[in-house]
Design a protein that fits this description.
By secondary structure, the protein is of the alpha+beta class. The protein is 31% helix and 16% strand. The chain starts with 9 loop residues before the first helix and ends with a helix. GO terms for molecular function: ATP binding; protein serine/threonine kinase activity.
Length: 147
């Protein structure tokens, strides 16, 4: 489904193509393809029939998720983050929120939207300087305070 409000700048689009083209894990959305023609850019993900977690939590009239499904979704999202943080080339995700957690037909969760992602520390470095990014209200307070 095309989402005009989801259109991003070229830099963010390229970041997403690079990360999702290289990273493969059952809790990361699969990038099927992409296209760029001038200022028009498109990403094609695997189909996630249950939509985003945000739709299930906040949409009017949505049936509430059982606690078992909520736990399954949370564990899947945590596994996706753990994979990014423990990968050989670590990734700082920077946009963890309900609208970026997509759900397949069995409510398996997959992280999407890597436009704000950044490479983690490499070599003997233990920290990465970064501009505070993400969606207000979802970022960890210590991240907002220290960057």
């Amino acid at each position: 489904k095309l989402k005009p409000e989801g259109f991003q700048g070229h830099k963010e689009w390229l970041t997403e193509v690079n990360y999702l083209g290289q990273l493969h894990h059952k809790n990361l959305v699969k990038l099927i393809g992409y296209c760029s023609d001038g200022d028009n850019r498109l990403l094609v993900y695997e189909f996630m029939p249950k939509g985003s977690l945000e739709n299930h939590l906040f949409r009017r009239g949505a049936d509430p998720l059982s606690w078992a499904i909520r736990l399954k979704v949370a564990i899947g999202a945590a596994r996706g983050l753990s994979f990014l943080h423990d990968a050989e080339n670590q990734v700082i995700y920077r946009d963890f929120k309900a609208s970026n957690i997509l759900l397949d037909s069995e409510f398996n969760s997959k992280l999407s939207d890597f436009g704000l992602a950044k490479a983690g520390p490499t070599g003997d470095k233990t920290h990465v300087s970064t501009q505070v990014m993400g969606t207000h209200g979802y970022a960890a307070p210590e991240y907002i305070a220290t960057g």
